[in-house]
Amino acid sequence: MTINSTNYSVSNPSTEVISPTTTTAPATTPTRTRYVDRHALQQERARALFAKYGLTLESHEWIAAPVPMLAVQRVEKAIRMRVHRSCHHCGAIYGAEKVCFQCEHKRCKKCPRYPPKKKTLGEKEKDDAGEKPKKKRVLTVTTRAGNELAYQPPKQRVKRTCHKCDTLFVPATATICEQCRHIRCTKCPREPAKLQKWPVGYPGDVEADSDSEVEKQLEKFRRTWRKPRQRVRWECEKCHSSFISGTPQCPGCGHERCDKCTRSPIKKARKEERFDPKLVAVVEAKLRALDVESDVPPPEVTVA
User: Fold this and answer.
1) Residue 188: which domain range?
2) Where is the composition biased (Polar residues) (predicted)?
3) CA torsion, points 127, 133, 135, 136, in degrees to nearest 10?
């Protein structure tokens, strides 16, 4: 091996000195190698960058490397593809070992491979030949009794129940209950309900009639809200005993109820609206001015 000042050179390993008695080994094709000077590449990049922005790079401005850059020997190799395999039990990706680190499953042919392996021409032909033509869907089914049933698309089952006797309408489109002969109305529930589309009633329903007897009983015992009334008590002015409600005589002394008897609570006096006399006089004067053109003379005011 010889060493130069700038780079290293390697002698060809295929050429060896052998003795005349030994046999020669078969010659092997040497791998192609190319030398890359990183220092020169870095200078070219710097010059291109300076030229892009209109600057100049002088030789004395370049910082020289402390040690001369050695030529890197690169060997050209074919591009390799990374293949990943994942466990078909837990889905974890295998590492360098062939055992799953999560479930300790040994890698098998069922474990998927990414990217998938390319199929050969023979395998592709087998797959194409193995695909059978699709059969037409059978629309009729023969039962054990020999009857043929026709295929029908799935439908939603709708149930209507009578709100009086809780009996299902058979079929669901029927409008009269078979048990109580009630005509289907808006009170009869539907399952499943569609209140957003039909909030009041469903198509074909009759307006609900009020049940006469039940409604009358409900009206009779139905409680209506009324304003609370105040209970008034009277006390006799002589013996100070309370009057019985509905009787005008005192139960203690027989005194008849009068204005001097105390009332509990005290009756509030009504407030009478009183207007300002000056405003009343102004309004009356305006009314008299409006009646000037009338034929009827105004009434005379007499002062007592």
Assistant:
1) 157-207
2) 1-19
3) 140
Is there a contact between 176 and 162 (Cβ–Cβ < 8 Å)?
no
Amino acid at 60: H
**ω into residue 265 within 30 of 0, thus cis?**
yes
For residue 206, the Cα-to-chain-centroid distance in whole angstroms is 38
- Answer yes or no: are the C-beta atoms of 250 and 241 closer than 8 Å: yes
Domain ends where: 56, 89, 119?
A: 119
Locus of tokens 């040690």: 67
User: Residue 97 is encoded by which pair of tokens?
Assistant: 């070992």
153-178: buried (b, 16+ CB within 10 Å) or exposed (e) per residue?
A: eeeeeeebbbeeeeeebeeeeeeebe
CB neighbour list of residue 95: distance below 8 Å, 6 or more residues apart? 101
Q: Is the dihedral of CA 70, 76, 77, 79 positive or negative?
A: positive
Residues 189-241: tens digit of each pLDDT: 999 999 889 888 898 898 887 656 666 666 677 777 888 888 888 899 888 88
**Count of the separate structural domains present in the chain:** 3
Q: Distance (Å, rounded) from C-alpha 231 to C-alpha 249?
A: 18
User: Which two tokens mark 282?
Assistant: 């102004």
Report d(CA 43, CA 70) in Å as an integer. 15
Indicate the pTM of the whole model: 0.25
Cα separation, 69 vs 238, in Å, equals 135
Within a domain: 193: yes
Instruction: Examine the fold and report which residue of 207, 241, 271 is the final residue of a domain before the chain moves on.
Output: 207
Which among 222, 252, 214, 246 is positioned nearest to 233, based on CA atoms?
246
Give residue for tokens 């009787």: 247
Is residue 111 included in any domain, yes or no? yes
User: Alpha-carbon distance 202 to 172, whole Å?
Assistant: 12
Q: What is the per-residue pLDDT across 161-190, written as a single tens digit (0 to 9) for each?
A: 998 899 999 988 899 999 888 889 988 999
